[in-house]
Specification:
This protein is of the alpha/beta class. The chain is built from 16 helices and 15 strands. Helix 7 crosses helix 10, helix 12 packs across helix 15 and helix 15 runs antiparallel to helix 16.
């Protein structure tokens, strides 16, 4: 979405009479987010246009490299901020030694944050630590203590609106649940048509088949998952069916024509059987199975559950240093200990057809043998460099942007000298400072570019002999062996009887 908005914005700028000047000394960034709860909210391009006009009016240079646009549907109320990637990127760049912008402009303060606590935290951080102000186009604030008070009142109203909205939505959905309205994504077997839940014929036949085979053919959930996958069907999200998918389908009252809605959050897996938190009501849509069939399947599942042995958890210590290390090449799932052997957990859940059972001692011997081979011939070592490459690329991108910014500064001080704003001495002094900054940035960039491919392999080789000694020494604790091998090896892929070691890059 961001690329599309920026392209449209660049075309729009060309049609404008007034343009931003590179000579303006103060720089600004723009942060844009579309509300998930207001139909009347300005679109991203509309917010950006208003921010641009604000920048011109206040003689702020708005750099296109520092326009941060969240994907639609990202909320400002998430206190953990995991999904607000553009916000996180903006805050990270604000901490740069070379100040990249002096202000962050938003359409409304609520675009920045709806929680007053979160808003105060980040605004104080930006202002006190990095001398960066947050300005609202539609909510101009005067300088001084009174302006700060008005800003806090606006933040309080934004947070109050969000809390009140949440309560209103919950109240409306509760009423809908009591009326038998289905209020979620259409489940497997159904589709939405003109705000009505309609049976999807091909998928509904699979639902009927699951209930029939579970009741009459005594197929387990794992067997049912494999069977459905073999027919080429996939879940609503495009994934393979697993035993937990079958479990959820059997216990879902929607298939007998009832709605289930929980006002205070999602259900835990054990609560699918019985809970007092959900509202279950006869729905206003057609069922796929009759109530008698649904009850039979649920009762049978509950009987299985009541006779199931309590879950046996491992002790705090790992049972072996290979625990969690072996991965199935076909599905990516971990090979876990099953009846004294290692087997793909994807197969255990019915989502993979790799049914091989591996002897644990043989697997350990094969890994130790490969460690010896890699020590003697490190050129064949394979390294998982994704994480490190991403870090280097991010650092490289920041350095390149900083170099571009230095070039802009050099051009600006040159123009200031030509226009008579700065003296020759001031120009020489400023140029010297910028040239030294540029030299330092180029040195850092050269260090990243000069990293050689073979160096990490030689570093790993130095650790291999020590790792082999530790893993074969019976007197060393399993915790230490586990730590050593998982620090050195990223994963061991299993495919058709062969094991492939993939190492971590060690610095």
């Amino acid at each position: 979405m961001k690329e599309k908005v920026l392209l449209e914005f660049k075309d729009w700028i060309k049609s404008q009479d007034n343009h931003i000047s590179i000579l303006w000394k103060r720089h600004a960034a723009a942060y844009i987010r579309v509300s998930t709860d207001k139909q009347t909210e300005l679109s991203p391009i509309s917010q950006l246009k208003e921010i641009y006009k604000y920048a011109i009016h206040n003689e702020l240079y708005l750099d296109l490299n520092y326009i941060f646009i969240e994907e639609e549907g990202i909320s400002a109320k998430d206190s953990k901020l995991e999904k607000r990637t553009e916000f996180n990127k903006m805050i990270a760049l604000s901490k740069s030694k070379d100040k990249l912008f002096d202000e962050i402009i938003v359409w409304k303060f609520s675009r920045f944050a709806r929680s007053q606590e979160q808003s105060i935290l980040f605004k104080n951080l930006l202002r006190k630590e990095y001398n960066i102000d947050v300005k609202s186009v539609s909510e101009p604030i005067i300088d001084g203590p009174f302006g700060g008070l008005i800003e806090r009142i606006i933040e309080w109203f934004d947070e109050y609106y969000l809390i009140n909205l949440s309560q209103e939505v919950t109240r409306g959905m509760t009423e809908g649940a009591h009326e038998g309205k289905y209020q979620s994504v259409a489940p497997f077997g159904y589709r939405w048509d003109n705000h009505k839940l309609i049976i999807k014929e091909d998928e509904s036949e699979i639902i009927k088949l699951i209930y029939n085979k579970f009741i009459n053919d005594d197929m387990t959930m794992m067997e049912l998952a494999r069977y459905i996958n073999s027919l080429g069907f996939r879940t609503k999200r495009g994934g393979k069916f697993e035993n937990r998918t079958i479990n959820y389908i059997i216990l879902n009252p929607v298939y007998k024509g009832y709605t289930r809605w929980t006002p205070n959050g999602k259900l835990k897996r054990e609560e699918l059987y019985n809970n007092n938190r959900s509202i279950i009501t006869k729905g206003n849509f057609e069922p796929i199975v009759d109530e008698e069939t649904w009850e039979k399947a649920v009762n049978k599942l509950e009987n299985y559950r009541s006779y199931r042995k309590p879950h046996q958890t491992d002790s705090q210590n790992p049972w072996s240093w290979i625990k969690g290390l072996i991965r199935c090449k076909k599905c990516g799932k971990t090979l876990i200990r099953t009846n004294g052997k290692l087997r793909c957990n994807g197969y255990n859940k019915g989502a993979c057809n790799c049914s091989d059972s591996l002897d644990i001692d043989e697997v350990k011997s094969l890994i130790l043998e490969q460690i010896k081979q890699y020590y003697n011939n490190p050129i064949n070592i394979k390294i998982d460099k994704k994480r490190n490459n991403n870090e280097n690329n991010n650092e490289k991108d920041i350095l390149i942007k900083q170099l571009e910014f230095i070039e802009v500064k050099i051009e600006r001080i040159k123009n200031s000298y030509i226009d008579g704003i700065d003296t020759l001495e001031e120009y020489k002094s400023n140029k010297k400072i910028l040239s030294e900054e540029k030299k330092e940035l180029l040195n850092q960039l050269n260090k990243i570019n000069s990293i050689k491919e073979d160096n990490p392999k030689l570093i790993i080789k130095e650790h291999l002999q020590n790792a082999y000694t530790i893993l074969t020494d019976e007197s060393i604790s399993m915790e230490k062996k586990f730590t050593v091998v998982h620090t050195l090896i990223n994963k061991v892929e299993y495919n058709n009887g062969e094991l492939f070691l993939l190492f971590n890059e060690i610095k």
